[in-house]
């Protein structure tokens, strides 16, 4: 199978914006590298890349509509920056080349104190820790983005044993799998992309998750349940529109964990969910925000 890479030069100020736009338009994976070709799949915690000449690369299926993708990127870029985005290099990449490149640069990483995400071809550095084996191929999220990292760290620091969990926008299933590995009773994963559900199912199999512990649905097929924990690592606008649906599936005393929110959007999203939840102070990482809230006992419906 062939892939297409889009390479876009950037300065440090706008590199993460390009990453976000590439993911929004459907990139299967995004990486950054400097002029010396040193890849950066995850900066040190609390830091951002400061290369003067950063190249942001998005990976797409060879059958993707490249004209639509480029048009989206240019229009969204202009809306956000009032600048033109003209330099988009297209490179055809064979599957074996892509796999080799990413296998070389994807390494085990710890989130919090006890939780590790490990590529499937690596031995876990701490076998006695809680290890999630993940193939970053078409993983729809390998834990490297700040939004996923914030959610994984919350799971590591909180007791989710015996919890009924909903992972809304599950992608690779990484958050739901982490919850199950940390003792959750059952996870309901919801995503509007059938390929994401396939990725979640495969990652669950790879991690020896019992078949009845993870249920996966498209949004229109998802049951309405009462959960102890709602995880939603998507984007701010869907979080705003989905607020009643997500809130009303969390039982009184249950938690909601929201991410995919940029710093300037946090107040609007927090205020929206404050109708149902006692919202905690936001956690901010590299310009991205995690919001958490405790469901009120008699919140508005």
Summarize the structure.
With 301 residues, this protein is of the alpha/beta class. It has helices spanning 15-24, 66-81, 95-105, 146-157, 174-181, 194-206, 236-247, 266-273, and strands spanning 2-10, 29-33, 39-40, 54-61, 89-94, 109-111, 115-119, 130-134, 164-168, 186-190, 214-217, 227-233, 250-262, 277-279, 283-285, 288-295. The protein is 30% helix and 30% strand.
Describe it for me?
The chain has helices at residues 15-24, 66-81, 95-105, 146-157, 174-181, 194-206, 236-247, 266-273, and strands at 2-10, 29-33, 39-40, 54-61, 89-94, 109-111, 115-119, 130-134, 164-168, 186-190, 214-217, 227-233, 250-262, 277-279, 283-285, 288-295. The chain is of the alpha/beta class. The strands form three sheets. Strands 9, 10, 11, 12, 13, 14, 15 and 16 form an eight-stranded mixed sheet that branches. Strands 3-2-4-1-5 form a five-stranded antiparallel sheet. Mean pLDDT is 83; it is low at 35-50.
Reconstruct the topology from this structure:
Blueprint: E1 2-10, H1 15-24, E2 29-33, E3 39-40, E4 54-61, H2 66-81, E5 89-94, H3 95-105, E6 109-111, E7 115-119, E8 130-134, H4 146-157, E9 164-168, H5 174-181, E10 186-190, H6 194-206, E11 214-217, E12 227-233, H7 236-247, E13 250-262, H8 266-273, E14 277-279, E15 283-285, E16 288-295
Parallel strand pairs: 7-8, 9-10, 9-12, 10-11, 12-13
Antiparallel strand pairs: 1-4, 1-5, 2-3, 2-4, 6-7, 13-16, 14-16, 15-16
Helix pairs in contact: 1-2, 7-8
């Amino acid at each position: 199978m062939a892939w297409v890479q889009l390479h876009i030069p950037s300065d440090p100020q706008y590199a993460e914006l390009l990453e976000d736009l590439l993911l929004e338009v459907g990139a299967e994976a995004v990486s950054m590298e400097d002029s010396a070709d040193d890849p950066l799949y995850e900066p040190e915690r609390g830091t951002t890349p400061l290369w003067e000449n950063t190249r942001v690369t998005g990976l797409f299926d060879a059958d993707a509509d490249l004209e639509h993708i480029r048009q989206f990127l240019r229009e969204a870029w202009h809306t956000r920056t009032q600048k033109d985005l003209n330099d988009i290099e297209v490179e055809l990449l064979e599957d074996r080349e892509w796999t080799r490149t990413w296998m070389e640069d994807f390494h085990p990483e710890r989130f919090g104190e006890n939780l590790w995400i490990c590529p499937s071809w690596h031995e876990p550095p701490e076998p006695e820790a809680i290890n999630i084996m993940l193939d970053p191929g078409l993983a729809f999220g390998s834990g490297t983005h700040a939004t996923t990292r914030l959610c994984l760290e919350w799971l590591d620091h909180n007791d989710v044993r015996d919890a009924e969990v909903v992972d809304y926008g599950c992608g690779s299933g990484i958050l739901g799998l982490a919850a199950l590995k940390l003792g959750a009773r059952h996870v309901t994963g919801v995503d509007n992309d059938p390929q994401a559900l396939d990725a979640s199912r495969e990652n669950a199999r790879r991690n020896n998750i019992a078949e009845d512990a993870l249920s996966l649905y498209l949004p229109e097929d998802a049951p309405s349940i009462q959960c102890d924990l709602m995880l939603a690592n998507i984007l701010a606008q869907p979080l705003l529109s989905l607020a009643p649906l997500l809130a009303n599936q969390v039982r009184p005393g249950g938690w909601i964990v929201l991410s995919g929110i940029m710093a300037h959007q946090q107040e609007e999203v927090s205020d929206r969910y404050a109708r149902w939840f006692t919202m905690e102070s936001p956690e901010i990482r590299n310009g991205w925000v995690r919001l958490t809230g405790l469901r009120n006992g008699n919140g508005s419906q």
